[in-house]
Write a structure and sequence with these properties.
This protein is an alpha/beta fold and about 210 residues long. It contains 6 helices and 15 strands. The strands form 5 sheets. The protein has a 6-stranded parallel β-sheet, sandwiched between helices. Strands 9-11-13 form a 3-stranded parallel β-sheet. Strands 2-3 form a two-stranded antiparallel sheet. Bound molecules: uracil. The site of uracil (URA) has 10 residues, from helix 6. Catalyzes the conversion of uracil and 5-phospho-alpha-D-ribose 1-diphosphate (PRPP) to UMP and diphosphate.
């Protein structure tokens, strides 16, 4: 079964409290999403493979390590975009690939409208980024696409998860680790996480 990792870090809890506040303005909201993206990625990447390298210091040769795997960031449009910058500050060599999905109003299934992935995979680890793991539909569909592309190691990094979305991702993709700042109570009838933080896209982009 999927490993779910709600962050135990006090800085994450503190920043998430400000993020949730209905009075937090878009500028501050974007800054917090960026910072939380970096903190959660720090936790999500503790098991990345390393290769040894020798580094010349002013005093001699140090036995060091560098990342051995190419990393891809896959923000789920549009709210996932705000998480990219924070992750990129930690992993500047990461490739960012965009996949666009919308929900068909009749079938309620995610439909792909943008996907420019090359034929062969260019990365070996992917971080799927979305602040809200609500129904899990977009996350499951995105992981489906990445697996078809040939990526073997995929992790989900988000801010708040609903039990419904976590369960959907766990059932569809039990090998995908889920890193979150918090797990909330439930989804309401409109698909919003309660208590959540509202619409993460609207709050970042000032479109509420
Ligand atoms: N997407 C959001 O932005 N907020 C939610 O609560 C659920 C999905």
């Amino acid at each position: 079964m999927t490993n779910i990792y709600p962050s135990p870090h006090p800085l994450v809890a503190h920043k998430l409290s400000i993020l949730r506040d209905v009075n937090t303005e878009p500028k501050k909201f974007r800054q917090l999403v960026r910072e939380l993206g970096a903190l959660l990625t720090y936790e999500a990447t503790t098991d990345l493979q390393m290769s040894p390298i020798d580094v010349q210091t002013p005093m001699g040769t140090a036995k060091c390590h560098e990342l051995a795997m190419k990393i891809g960031l896959i923000p789920i449009l549009r709210a996932g975009l705000g998480l990219v910058e924070g992750v990129w500050e930690l992993i500047p060599t990461a490739e960012v690939w965009h996949i666009g999905l919308y929900r068909d109003e009749k079938t309620l299934q995610p439909v792909e409208y943008y996907n420019k992935l090359p034929v062969e995979p260019t990365v070996s680890v992917c971080l799927v980024l979305d602040p809200m793991l609500a129904t899990g539909g977009s996350a499951v569909a995105t992981v489906d696409i990445l697996k078809r592309w040939g990526v073997k190691r995929i992790k989900f990094v988000g801010l708040i998860g609903a039990p419904e979305g976590i369960k959907a991702l766990q059932i569809a993709h039990p090998d995908v680790d889920i890193h979150l700042a918090a797990v909330d109570d439930h989804l309401n009838e409109k698909g919003y996480i309660v208590p959540g933080l509202g619409d993460a896209g609207d709050r970042q982009f000032g479109t509420a």
